[in-house]
Amino acid sequence: MSNHDDFDHKLAALQGLNPPAPNAARRNQALDAAMLAFDAEQKSATQGSSTISRLSSMFANARRNFVMDNRLTYGLGTAAVALLLLPLGYQLYTSTAITPVGVPPVTVTTTADPVPLGGEAEQKVEAPANGTAAMETPTADLEIRLDDRAEANPPVEEGEADMAVMAPAPEAAPLGEVAKPVMRTLAQPGGAQPQMSAGVQPLTESFAEPMMVAPTDPSGDAFAKFTESPVKIVKNEPVSTFSIDVDTAAYSYVRRALNEGWVPEPDAVRIEELVNYFSYDYPAATDAATPFKPTVSVYPTPWNDKTQLVQIGIKGYVPPVTEDTASNLVFLLDTSGSMDQPDKLPLLKRAFGLLVDQLGENDTVSIVAYAGSAGVVLEPTKGSDKTKILSALDNLSAGGSTAGAAGIELAYQLAEQHKVQGGVNRVILATDGDFNVGIDDPEDLKTYIKNKRDGGVFLSVLGFGSGNLGDDTMQALAQNGNGNASYIDSFKEAQKVLVADAGGTLDTIAKDVKIQVEFNPAVVSEYRLIGYETRALNREDFNNDKVDAGDVGAGTTVTALYEITPVGSGAELNDPLRYETDAAATPDAAAATEFGFLKLRYKEPDSDTSKLIEVPIGKDLAVDSLEAASADDRWAAAVAAFGQKLKGSVYGDMAWADIRKLAQGARGEDEAGYRAEFMGLIDMAAVLRPNVVPATPIEETEVAPVPAVVPEPDAVQVPEAAPVPEAVPAPEALPAPEAVPVN
Predict the structure, then answer these.
(1) Do 530 and 430 fall into the same domain?
(2) According to DSSP H, which parts of 395-441 are helical?
(3) pLDDT tens, 367-394?
């Protein structure tokens, strides 16, 4: 081995060694030796020096000797001061904001004058006659007393509430350790269920053990404000009218919010869109002349055993596979700077790639992009030329402002130039909603879209991203454009909207579809429509063909739910009038066999005259138990209960475990897995918005001490003060340090 190799080997061995830990004693010995050597050198160097130099050396040497000789004295003095200040440290520890959770606030009191918070302890030093100084500490017997705030927050007295969650006084623990409290939950008498705090989840729901309620602060996204449909008295308002709705954007948005760990704001939860996200096995129409026929069922309400649900469902006509309807599609794409996020423009391009893959020789695609300026990215191109279309999509990039000069005009101009008679003519707007497509005034934009709709070119809207999502604007544009609004939160959702449900998204089989129900006052005393708040119509709008309404696509299923209160059930929310008479009796005896009467109006896609469908809602449609209802009925009820609980509805509340059980028993085949995915959303919602009342009482469990507070549905609660624990035993007396001699 060469010398160089030997050196490298030894160096590597040295690098692998761990250096010894520093030793304070040896360090001091080395320092002393160095100072002595330095002093010796200085003494030898003073020979021949001036007197002043020799005197300076002597004083310096004397000072060093004094410091070295009194190191022990300084150490003892420091320790004595630390022991003296220990009571003050204990007081600060137990009275400031950093006190550990679960430790009740305490005050330290000594026999001497109290030391103010943030002040310094007074030290009294006296010099005895013998010349030594002794430091005396106050009496070390510490007395721990309860905080005066206990008087302002007295414990819950017996009988003040049916149940209270109490944190008993912790057992005595050594100073610096915290006794672990045990929370006992007492069941109400008679098997009633106790009320739990927002942070405590019943053990029966293992999937929901939240630490806190997720906030419902505004997300930055804009939603149309609406008030939940109220309960109405049949004798006063027997007729209910609304526009059909096939939008599903609310469900996708709610799913994204829950999966990201936050509760969506109430206006984002449109219950009808949650229910209509799923397909139901309603019988479909057999020909395009009658594009759908209604299916009606009546069954008990799962959240109120004294009321019933009336479920109205329709399924759009499904054209045979042999029919190849030509499509003229214009993609109006937002490429502004706000779209430069992974869940916006990149997802948009992949989503439209899925749609392009479904197009054929009879289809035409154009692309218009808008940002700082609008422009035609792709002239009308045959759907079979997929390479050209996909290349145009790939070349899109985000940038610029949101002022898309004449973007909407360009899109409709291309659609009208290549309009297909008897086919699909549609502009598909894809945006995050924070946009201006060229017409500044919202009313002017709506009027413009209505005019183009009457000319046979419809509009659909796809929303992307969050933080500045203009859901309210997108909903308004889609409703005025005879189209639907969808929210694309994932590639899977893009596949559902643009591939699996492409017929319902693009091919309209009926437009301006309206529903009107007249309830029978002899059988039904009250009713309320679940959802559809943004689709309500006046009674006279039903027969007015100039009033716009929703549209139904090929193969689309639409569901509406009413909760009705039968006469004599005792579930009425309105008191009878003092001067009410029986003058409004049923016209004939036959009407006593009906809950009500259903009417539907619709127009064919190329017609301006509506057609009418009428169906009685007979009492023979009702089933006696929820178990006797169909799987689709029970599933729709479970989704409605989920939406009501999530948004904090004032009408009915089911425990999450009960909603999950109802949905689990109604999943059916679920080939696409959408219903299985919904089961996971129930679990997430249960964690983020716990039950106000648990499904079953809990005997005893160890949890963090939380006061008994029942939260309001849409607010994070401020807990009440917990009962004040008993006094904590005082720590042992601190010994006073011995007197330290002063040299």
Answers:
(1) no
(2) 407-417
(3) 999 876 668 899 999 999 999 999 999 9
